[in-house]
Amino acid sequence: GSLIEQLTTEKYECMVCCEVVRIVAPVWSCQNCYHVFHLNCIKKWARSPASQAEDGNSGWRCPACQNASTQVPKTYTCFCGKVHNPEWNRNEIPHSCGELCGKKRQCLDCPHLCNILCHPGPCPSCPAFVTKTCECGQTSHSVRCGQSTKIHCSNVCGNTLNCGKHSCTQVCHAGKCSPCQLTVQQVCYCGSNFKEVLCGTKEEFSDGFGNFSCQNICGKKLNCGRHNCTQVCHPQPCPLCPRLPQVVYRCPCGQTPLSKLLELGCVERKICTDPIPSCGKTCGKPLSCGSYEFIHTCESLCHEGDCRPCSHTSNIYCRCGFKKKVNIKVTTGFLRFFLFLIAAITFMCDKRCNKKRSCGRHKCNEVCCVDTEHKCSLVCGRKLNCGLHRCEEPCHRGSCQTCWQTSFDELTCYCGESVIYPPVPCGTQPPECKKTCTRPHDCDHPVYHSCHSEEKCPPCTYLTQKWCMGKHEVNLHLEFFIISCHLFPPLFQLRSNIPCHLTDISCGLRCNQMLKCGMHKCKRICHKGECLIDEEIAAISIATKLTDLQLGDSVEISRLITKKEMKQARLQCDEECLALQRNRRLAEALEIDDNSDPFNIRSSGPKYSDLLKEDARKDLKFVSDIEKEMRMLVEAVNKGKNTKKSHCYPPMNRDHRRIIHELAQVYGIESVSYDNEPKRNVVITAVKGKSICPSNTLTSVLDKEMQSRPPPPIPHYKQTDKSCGTSGLSKPLKEEPVIDYFDVQD
């Protein structure tokens, strides 16, 4: 009734997949425990290694009752098995055919078939009444058909016992009568021993003279009357004397018939005690020693009795056949003991087997191995698919079976809104939840991610305003004062649209913080921590000194003289020097970089150095292309959404790289050299709000200078004194070496 109700209301669950059994789904029912499963689920279970019986020959086990079955279900039938693929009828039990069951009931002695409609579960007991006799068969009673209770009367049983001589004295009882408890005396076959046993014990072994063997030598006189029987106590009559003349036909070694020896003059035997004539040949009987390769034989002349000990040596092989050793020659008294010892203790070599075991992972490593299957006795121990438990099966090939551990506790998400009800297979992940995460967060911004099972929440992506790592900021209250004094315009502002989880933000501009030396500023991109002093100053100072020395100028040697001498040699500051010093102190207090020009105050009249102009005159096309690329880059970054935009030039020589670095300073563009010679190149980066397009390009400045310059005078050659040794033409000055200050690596 419970099965019918659960199947009808679709509340019955399959034990394999833990899903509800639908009324239209093909099912299979176990005939031992009557559990119902999905047909596809039971097919997969029957083919899996975990379902196999322990002995390996009994088929597969039912997931519920563990009853072994040999055949795998293939078709969908009703509960009584008459109809294949039964159709569902609203007025009938699901998965039934609607006809009479007709199956045999569980009671073995009930001849009636089940008379109710096709149903799940066991058939009910038979309602018919029959007449049954008691256990002893003397009385009869009317009882329910299939009733398992036995009927007993109060009479004595009286059935004949196993001995066939006495009757049972017990009251009417179930089963066979107990064996006869009376004791009788039995004698052995040879008649030398007696013992008392229960009546009827081993009566079938009696030969009319005895009932058992005492395992001693028989000792009865043979038919010759001179020799005794040497066999163990036996039920049959003793054999003939083996030395009777009518029994012996050959010599002791068996090679020559006695009739041939009688022709040669031997005496004919009359009785069993007469000696057997010898042929005089070598005995040749096989001895108990030797091996399969070579059989040792007796080397004595034809004789009666046992052969003498073997005089040869034999080879003994280990059980795997890899090694052998020579067996020593032994005496007669020691021979039997030695042969017994060899049979009891097998010779084994020390060779270890290198073959793979059945698992394919481990080696056999057995000493003197004779195994053919090489089964692995180790435990597998690999992690199962759940990641929590390990395989406890013997080491095997292929993948391990799925973890069968099951939890009967509810599995919920962190907030408890989503629930997976038991049974929960081991390794099941918490259910997905679409509710907003309720875990505590470091910030107070709105939470936009869903509930999750991970302990750490995703980083907060709420857009905020933050300062860069170099603290490039300006006090807004001093903006008007700074701009009105034309000291330094505000360089940086608070950066917007920064995700909350980002802490170290670089503005992409140069640091420009004053170093500890007080003479240089940090040229690294906005960075975290203290500015690097030694590397930058060392590189720049070395380049500067080399340039000054090559140009013949003076070199700073303040580190080589005393402070007193340095103070005496210092120049006096003028008004311009004092103004620069005052502006530098104010810039340091307000953390303002004096190299930037966001309001284009200094861009009205760009200044090109004489050296840059001279280089541009030498290669005007190259300078024109560079300026065109820089103007396009600055216009693109100022009009676009990106704050930065870069361009990489192909590898070029040192002079061209120096022109790009100097032009980048005029346009407010960052320039850095990368790689080593001869593939060293320059990368320029335009920054929005910092990079500018000057009103006058270098090429236009050169054109104006050429137009305003007077025509060159006609040269006049003046004859000079030959003794002077000089000509009227002045020699051109030697080109001064130029060092690329921007081409120094960090």
Provide a descriptive summary of the structure in words.
- By secondary structure, the protein is an alpha+beta fold.
- Among the domains are: 1-124, no CATH class; 461-472 and 492-531, no CATH class; 610-702, R3H-like domain (Ribosomal Protein S8, Chain: A, domain 1).
- It is 18% helix and 10% strand.
- It is built from twelve helices and 19 strands.
- The chain has helices spanning 2-8, 39-47, 258-263, 332-344, 479-485, 534-551, 563-568, 575-590, 610-618, 620-639, 654-667, 698-708, and strands at residues 27-29, 36-38, 60-61, 68-69, 129-133, 140-144, 183-187, 194-198, 314-317, 324-327, 406-407, 411-412, 419-420, 424-425, 463-466, 495-499, 644-648, 670-674, 681-687.
- The chain is elongated, with a radius of gyration of 58 Å.
- The model is unreliable at 328-334, 474-492, 549-555, 557-562, 598-604 and 715-746 (pLDDT under 50).
